[in-house]
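For the sake of transparency, this paper describes our internal protein records without simplification. Because each token names a local backbone shape, the row as a whole describes the fold. One such record is reproduced below, unchanged from the form in which we store it:
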Amino acid sequence: MSTKSGAGAVFNRWLQKRIPKTESVELNQRSIFVFPTKAGFYAGVLLVVMLLTAINYQNSMVYMLVFLIAVMCVLTIHLSFYNLQGLTVTRLLVESAFAGDNLLVTFSLSSKKDKPYYGVWLSWPNESEVLANVLACEVTTVQLTLATQQRGTLIAPRVLIESVYPFGLIRVWSWLDLDVKGIVYPKSIKGEPIPASISEGGDGEVNMHAGSDLFNGLRNFNRGDSLKHVAWKQFARQGELLTKEFESPRTQSNVFSLEDYGHASIEAALSHLCFDVLNAEARGEFYALNLKGDCTEMKKGAEHLQMCLQKLALY
């Protein structure tokens, strides 16, 4: 293990003890960190230079200016810390998403005390930031997005909440683990199921076996059509070549199974099944999902769709 990863693991363990996982947290002196910004460092350097100048020239006016700025800097530290102290952050809703889309999470920022909070930024690492202002004794909702890459249960990292209010010289922040867990469904991709097997009976008729296609009607014979699909009885009666058409029984029964995509990888098969259940739900049809023996009932509706998608996500 590298030094960097080892230090990161130690820091995470320390952070977990200091700010444990919870759905709601009220920020206090234990969970708020304070440090100067880049502008704050420059202000500190300038203050030291001014102090050295005052000492060198024994200039009382410069002394007074240095002390005045120093008092303002100390006051800024208290004001910046006070701008997060007492703010309550709560995780409200975690919406599901398809792989490749953004997971949407809703948080609430509330002020239990009679004071407002200004310039509060929330974000996840490497994600876009959201600015929030919380008025006194009010609740503000904030929505953050988190990129997804693969199906399954997504455990979000800690949320960064920070502020440089009021003068941008001091940065106050905290890393909050609000127990954000989301379900990521497989990416919906249309696939081609394994073609059904068809055999010819002794009388020239097409026999259907388990898992084969169902007879769907007759059409005119076209050059290149298989002779196995020719309706010979109709030809003997009418003298006209007709071809039998078939359709997959799944278009009627809509039992979507992993075995339908046995030629594909597990992830690809799950993506194809995701497309199938979404398509059946959009058409208003009844459907069921069979994942190697774990078969759902033949239903339709939003609740049934969500159950099927969750099974695909967690398979």
In short: Helices lie at 3-18, 38-57, 60-82, 232-238, 250-253, 266-283, 302-314. The first helix runs from residue 3 to 18. Confidence is low (pLDDT under 50) at residues 197-212. The CA atoms of residues 28 and 85 lie 5 Å apart.
